Fold each of these.
Amino acid sequence: MNNIVSHIGIFFIKLLGRLPFWFLYRLSDVGYYLMILSGYRKKIVFQNLHLAFPEKSDQEIKAISRKFFRHLCDMFIETFKMSSLREKQIRKRIQMENTELLDRYYDEGKDVIVATAHYNNWEWTPSLNLFIKAQGCGVYHPLKNKPYDRFMLKLRSTWGTLNFTMKASYRSMHKLKMENKRFAIGMISDQSPVKKRIQYYNNFFNQLTPSLTGAAKMSIKTNSPMVFMRMDKIKRGYYKITIEPLVENPQGYTETEITDMYTRCLEDIIREKPEFWLWSHNRWKHKKINK
């Protein structure tokens, strides 16, 4: 029964994906008001914003939260649109800056770890594969719902990106190396780790926060440079992605040092435009109290 419901949901998502952007954004406007009226994750969003910005007033927090919910609705419909979005369209809607850095690493025979985050529309970041010489790859966490997992995996492969689970990532990378294929592998590293797998706490918005070290570990183990993929929203449906250098020679650093570099970079861009980060994620559910 659950699979039937899932397949019906996917069918309607595909139908929505065929609609023009202007109509989808009208739906997004409706969805925003319904989300506000329903109080969707309002408590966790306000709690996270107050933790991150204790200096801001309730009115300022409310303003950020409303901008966040409006953007979140836009992101949902933009993700639906991926099922029918063609290469020509995505090239028009995504500006790429400093991809020359990735191409230089490619020419030097180096693979690259691309650290990114749940900031702006991360579901469109696999389009990087269209703009670089290396094979674009991504690490993902499988969804429990199998039909939706297969559907999302197909969406994330739209522009030729290869996708691996974390468990299979090293094996898949080794296979690409054996085939003499250079790759740039993207990793979203800002979510909260499973409690039993927490290995490191660092300072994130003045909170001792459990942080994933997998990207740093992978960078050091494979001796691959690590870059940060910054995504800025120009306007609805239009983004700019900038590749920023993070670590050129990772084996000169520890996992925690590289993780701290990533965290500082992420916090800086969130402070600039806080409404574009995923505040509905319970990032501090395993917060450590500094005694």
Amino acid sequence: MLYAFSTAITPGPNNFLTLNTVSRFGLKKSLRMMLGIICGIMIILTLTAALSFVLIQYIPQLTQIAKILGAIYILYLAYKIYTSKPVELDQNIKEPSFLNGMILQFLNVKIILYAITSLNSFVLPYTSDLIQIVLYALLLTSISVVCLWAWGLLGVLLSSAMQRHYKLINTICALILIESVISLFL
């Protein structure tokens, strides 16, 4: 539980995307994207629960491929956050969508590694019961939901400050995401 919570609450692509989107569009208009993120997390965790043993046992290089794709996604996200403007300054901006939130999870290396690490370290060594594994995947999803909402509420609370100082905050968020890419390969 501690590992899951500490991993889910720390800054990462989902949390920064939620913070940035909620501060720009508000919580109500960001709900679809947040639900997409949650569904994507649940799908990733369920697939990982079902395939984890096979992936690690027979195709260990898949973890490296996921890491590279995830790094590209995180750099893209850093660029998008860095170049984003408050909604009132950017008339061409689209509202966040459910599908975008969900699909981005398949390139989110933090969620993929979170699923693999949690299940392989804390579940699979102790049980091979499919029901227990699926229940643990749902528990991990629930923890992620709570943490995502915390970041969404932070976006609501900081909205006006983020609107006023968007360039500085976007730069800091983008740099933190770039650092997370560097740390993936160290």
Amino acid sequence: MAAKATNLSTFAIAELLHVDPGSVANWIDQGLLKAHRTPGGHRRVQVDDLIKFLREHKMPIPAELDTTPVRVLVVDDEEAVAKLIARAIRSQFSNFEVVEANDGFRAGTMIATVKPDVVILDLRMPGMDGYEVCRMIKSQDSTRHAEVIAMTAFPSPESEQRILDCGARVCLSKPLDLDTLLKEVEKSL
């Protein structure tokens, strides 16, 4: 199969995803899947654009395409908490790439460079808080696919609704139940 190529035809994509080639053409025509045309008029899709499309639409990524590890960013201004969470994720998911940030500004930089798949995000931090970080993640094309798992030591219905409105999938209370957190990480994928 042409999965090692950087560009895939609509037929190669259809074969990879077990869908009709007409479905792939429709995704392209509707602007959902970015593609270009060869001089002969054939549609071609870059592998990175296909992976982005699959993630955005919560579709499984065929193993032939997904060569990058799942990337998780843990953001908490309490360094010990961030390290504890990172350690728990690494022990449960040994093939994940886990990085940490201890403030919102550092998280913003890391989000832009790491492009995480999952962000575990504390709401209350000095400087840029979790709400701002979440809005930033969801406003950028390159990071919009990331699932945000928010956490707070000061839970309230208002703060939970506010972070969900910013784009987080769930908001957990601190102190964290690590088993619940790990289940949420798994759900995020």
